[in-house]
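Deviations from the work plan: none for this task. Representative record:
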Amino acid sequence: MRNTRATQLLFELSKSGRRGVRLPAADVPEVPLADLLPTDALASAPPPLPELTEPELVRHFTNLSTQNMSVDTHFYPLGSCTMKHNPKRNERLANLPGIIDLHPYQPADTLQGLLELLWNLQEMLAEIAGLPAVSLQPAAGAQGEMAALLCAAAHFRKLGQQRTKVLAPDSAHGTNPASAKMAGFDTVTVKSTPAGYVDMADLESKLDLQTAVFMITNPNTLGMFDRQIAEIAKKVHEVGGLIYLDGANMNAILGIARPGDFGADMMHFNPHKTFSGPHGGGGPGAGPISVSKVLEPYLPVPVVVRDENGFHLEYDRPESIGRVRSFFGNVGVLVRAYCYIRTHGPDGLKRVSENAVLNANYLLSKVKHIFPVPQGDRCMHEFVASGAKLKNDRGVSAMDVAKRLLDYGYHAPTVYFPPIVREAMMIEPTETESKETLDAFAQTLFRISEEPADLLQEAPHTTSISRPDEVQAARQPIVAWSPKV
Amino acid sequence: MPYVANTAEDQRAMLDSIGVKNIEELFASIPAELRLKRPLDIPPALSEMELTAHMAALAKKDAPAGEKICFLGAGSYDHFIPAVVDYVASRGEFYTSYTPYQPEASQGNLQVFFEYQTLITQLTGMDVSNASLYDGGSAAAEAVLMAISATGRHSRVVTAASVHPEYRQILATYLANLGIELVTVETPDGVISPETLAKVVNDQTACVLIQQPNFFGCLEPVEAIGKIAHEAGALFAVSVDPISLGLLKRPGDYGADIVVAEGQSLGSPMSFGGPYLGILACREQFVRRMPGRIAGETVDRRGKRCFVLTLQTREQHIRREKATSNICTNQGLFALRAAVYLAALGPQGLRETAELCLRRSHYAAEKLATDNGFERVFAAPTFKEFVVRAKGGDVEDMLVRASEAGYLAGIPLCMWYEDLADCFLVTVTERRTPEEIDGLVGCLNQVAAIHA
């Protein structure tokens, strides 16, 4: 069934003289090009792009699409990524012309509907976070981290304090230390206990007057709620530092606990995870941040404000850090988040988290007999199973299991993260999967655990390709097609 | 609960299997005193029908391009989007997938990224491209960080007032805590004066960042600027309008080291400013300093050509604070849109699009300038945008009146440029017909007459 002709590279399919789009005549007085632009600025020929017709393009890209796994087609328990169903109504509504065909510099009076939506989203995120001031600007979680850390830096500068350090646990997402570095801080790693919680003694030994921020993911990357959080916040605040909450795992606690209530001073949301924005093969996401009143003056500009004349964008905030991206932000993603929150309401959001946690615990109860879960019998929205025993006993790695799952029609869990668990398989089922799917997945894991090692080590067997040579790809990078000479 | 499958019966069976009495027990790790003891104070749930009506009512309060004729630009453009772009991007296999961590389950996305990267190198004349960043503005900041690390020069970066003011603001934010001086040369003539530039570019300068065509729509003397940068040992970074490359020389052909662009023009809606597509391409020697995802070609265990994410040791999930950037996503769906767009247009389509923009914008500029109320501000040649001075003053009031008459006539420059407070920026894409342009000119003449 596979159409390998159509999935050759665009450049191999190209034939001179073909085209997919025709344009109208200019219909303005004909003037020689040289009268409009200096000839030394003009290219001698247009860029050497491929030449294809529309039917060729449709067949090419449609066939390529079938070589992806996706939430629409497969169970996708990729831990930490919250691959839940992407509601179709949100796609339709986000594409309304009155929402999508708007220019970022239109006058506010031609934007009152969208600005009202965005203002309400700011309010709703503030309520869900328990932190009153929101910027919708950051384009992704990592950019939200950086923006919030820059706010913290501005805050300490205003206080006249030289705080140079950002602390983060060894189980943190790699973006945490990378964002801290980009915001101009030195990073310090805090140890985790074997159960995955913050090692309090290690934290205390590293807290001092140079500490600007402690970044924590809670629930953490093992899917556990660190109940020391209030104590951690107290200790950090005692030395004058701030708490940053990485909101990657908010899907576990919507309407149940709020970061602002358990000690966070600032956080980001991942609307593409928690609020169902489609992941788009890697993006776009968005990374709105919620911060405390103290940090509000430093938020990026503009923010949506409401006054007696309606809604408008406020730019005049002298203490603002400025901007981290152009225009307003990833509005299309934010609109979908708005639709998602409005679809659920307060009870619905709480049900989302309850069912996400129920599904994860149920799957954990089925999986732990096959792959031990070092953190124990309970989790929040995800858990990390270990393939260490299988590796020791039969030389089958977590990656082998991941690859074999593809043969059975499941996307693999996140493997080898967090690094504090050996042969880690981080599994996040999300609330939108049925019990039947979870049962079938657990049975498949069991079946795989019994399969011969060599079968697993060469998996996958049913996909179009298997075990690409990544070493060669990195050693002699070929990152663009070039014509064969 | 439209998206949750668990019935009460399912929940009971699942709780029994877990060994707890109720869902509440699963949250025992969250101390009671840290719990929210009331429902969230957000509006109640809406059914799909109610939500649809609600969104339609909101959308009705907006005036989208099409309802008002859009002559706005400045980095976000009303270019035509062929239907094939929307069709391909609406395939669930593309838009509901994620970062290709498992290449065997993601060959579709990986090949698209590889094709996108190739198309960007063809478009810009550069050797290599990444698989995209967030937007043109943050891509410009990332380009500067890349230049700082590539040159090892941590003291000065030079840009110009003719670069998009928001891009410069982003750059200033990114550099704020890194102890690097950002020098901005003024551009009173609408373009960079090479003599002025040469005075501030020194042997400590990591990079010179310019925009071509620049924020005012004018063409910069790129070859002279590149020469100044290179003679000082600085890198030459250029932010381009991708559509303009249907006509203009490619940055790779005039010596750019790093090229960035806002890729929205390539088949993505304006969407009030995002999501967009950050394009970043460079010379081969800098490939290991690039931020973001990169797809590469390799072979699988059976020797078959395939694609993977490559050079990952640059990235945050491996290198943490030593990574080239904190970025961990690309804008996959918008890279896809750009790939389909560029392949659909091909060389001729891109050239014709650029020519339409050029011819129609020059037609508009000339018509406007023949009226007594307006004049062109800068003499430098322009591509699809140009700056107009309203001799009668009060630009903002004129633009409001034009908007009431159905034209989004331009962007007032007072917000960013004090000396251009009586000016506005007009953009003409290939979508604006001669009739619409005539209408705009008539409308502006009328509002100018009110002010006269």
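Chain B has a mean pLDDT of 96.
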